[in-house]
């Protein structure tokens, strides 16, 4: 239980890792949200697919739901005291996730837990070019997901307000008061 | 204390907007021309204050400075705080434009009421002045916490849970705010007594 007197807003960020969706939640300046309520919706609709709470590191993991590939996902976070935020994931983000449907290469579906599955055993002689392509693209996607996740997180990381914003805001206030003074004078 | 977008129901958002609008209109009517510069300074201070984190015990908290705003401006606290909150929402992403009314009301109303109510003691000077300034600073924070909890009462979080968390978290902030308000008032009384509200207003 951490009272968040200093929190201004809460950040939510999610990405696909293997066949799991990883949701990371933090207050500004990388303080994790503990026991934040997460609701997963199917795309823009109000249909709730599942709910969960974040752990001590502000992370919540769940397997990719079947609907995700067609509708995408909308993740809503309730962190208490009026702090809330949302994150949407396009259907395209799940294209790489190994699906339970039969057309996916069996090698990837059998190894759900490690983030980058070790290369499958040498393909039997009768394998077609199409199957090789499918396997390679699955492996590449998994590797790229793992490599890109920190990058995407860094892009999203909350730097807090910049000096330009602060000075700009003060400038706005002075300007508004200046206009107010002008109109008062004229009356 | 900034409630985010998408938490409150449209009814509460509407009520907050109407109340904040009334307060702002009243504040604008009461503001005299000489007070405009004070308003600008206080709005700027409020705008920046939430960025300054003060370490208190295990956590850190930021000041909101609404107590001083209410003490010096009375109903004028509404336009000043509205301006600060609007810019915080647009430039920093704190709160949001749809919740602007609710957030303004929650922060400005306790400050304005306490500031106006405690004025007689502020102008008297001496120990009562310090005490009244402290009460105004601390009370504005706690009042804002209570109103924020009340706005959250109709969400799934419920009033009691939100109120407990918000009040607990803000007790140290309230003490710090009270001390700073008392210091500022003592300083103004010595250096610029004319900025303090006069008894007749």
What does this structure look like?
The complex is a heterodimer of chains A (187) and B (201). By secondary structure, chain A is an alpha+beta fold. Chain A is 33% helix and 27% strand. Chain A is built from 4 helices and 8 strands, in the order E-E-E-E-E-E-H-E-E-H-H-H. Chain A has helices spanning 68-71, 106-110, 129-156, 163-186, and strands at residues 10-17, 20-27, 31-32, 37-42, 48-53, 59-63, 73-80, 83-89. In chain A, the strands form 2 sheets. In chain A, strands 1, 2, 3 and 6 form a 4-stranded antiparallel beta sheet that branches. Chain A has a 4-stranded antiparallel beta sheet with strand order 5-4-7-8, with no helix packed on it. Chain B has 201 residues and is mostly helical. Chain B is 71% helix and 4% strand. Chain B has 8 helices and 2 strands; from the N terminus they run H-H-E-E-H-H-H-H-H-H. Chain B has helices at 10-30, 35-49, 66-73, 77-92, 100-117, 119-124, 126-151, 159-191; strands spanning 53-56, 59-62. Chain B has a two-stranded antiparallel sheet. In chain B, strand 1 and strand 2 (59-62) form a beta hairpin. In chain B, helix 2 packs antiparallel against helix 3 and helix 3 crosses helix 5 (100-117). The radius of gyration of chain B is 16 Å and the shape is globular. The two termini of chain B are 31 Å apart. The chains are: A alpha+beta (187), B mainly alpha (201). Chain A binds chain B through residues 2-6, 8-10, 76, 78, 80-86, 160-161, 165-166, 168-170, 172-174, 176-177, 180-181, 184-185, and chain B through 2-8, 33, 36-37, 39-40, 43-44, 47-48, 50-51, 53, 59-62, 83-84, 87-88, 91-94, 148, 151-152, 156-157, 161-162, 165-166, 168-170, 172-173.
């Amino acid at each position: 239980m951490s009272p968040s007197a200093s929190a201004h807003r809460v950040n939510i960020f999610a990405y696909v890792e293997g066949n799991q969706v990883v949701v990371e939640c933090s207050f500004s300046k990388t303080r994790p949200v503990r026991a934040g309520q997460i609701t997963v919706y199917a795309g823009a609709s109000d249909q709730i697919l599942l709910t969960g709470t974040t752990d001590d590191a502000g992370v919540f993991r769940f397997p990719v739901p079947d609907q995700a590939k067609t509708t995408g996902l909308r993740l809503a976070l309730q962190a208490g005291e009026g702090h809330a935020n949302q994150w949407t994931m396009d259907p395209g983000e799940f294209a790489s996730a190994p699906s339970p449907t039969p057309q996916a290469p069996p090698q990837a579906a059998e190894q759900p837990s490690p983030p980058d599955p070790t290369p499958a055993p040498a393909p039997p002689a009768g394998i077609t070019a199409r199957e090789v392509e499918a396997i390679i693209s699955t492996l590449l996607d998994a590797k790229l997901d793992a490599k890109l996740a920190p990058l995407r997180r860094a892009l999203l990381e909350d730097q807090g307000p910049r000096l330009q914003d602060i000075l700009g805001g003060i400038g706005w206030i002075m300007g508004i008061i200046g206009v107010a003074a002008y109109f008062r004078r004229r009356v | 204390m900034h409630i985010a977008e998408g938490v409150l129901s449209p009814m509460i958002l509407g009520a907050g907007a109407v109340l904040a609008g009334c307060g702002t209109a009243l504040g604008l009517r009461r503001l005299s021309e000489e007070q405009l510069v004070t308003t600008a300074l206080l709005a700027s201070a409020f705008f920046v204050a939430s960025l300054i984190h003060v370490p208190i015990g295990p956590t850190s908290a930021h000041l909101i400075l609404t107590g001083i705003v209410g003490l010096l401006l009375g109903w004028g606290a509404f336009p000043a705080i509205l301006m600060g909150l609007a810019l915080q929402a647009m430039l920093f992403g704190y709160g949001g434009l749809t919740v602007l009314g609710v957030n303004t009301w929650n922060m400005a109303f306790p400050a304005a009421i306490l500031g106006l109510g405690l004025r007689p003691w502020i102008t008297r000077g001496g120990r009562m002045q310090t005490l009244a300034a402290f009460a105004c600073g601390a009370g504005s924070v706690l009042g804002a916490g209570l109103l924020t909890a009340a706005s959250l009462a109709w969400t799934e979080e419920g009033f009691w849970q939100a109120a407990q968390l918000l009040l607990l978290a803000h007790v140290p902030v309230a003490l710090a705010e009270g001390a700073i308000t008392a210091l500022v008032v003592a300083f103004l009384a010595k250096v610029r007594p004319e900025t303090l509200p006069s008894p007749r207003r």
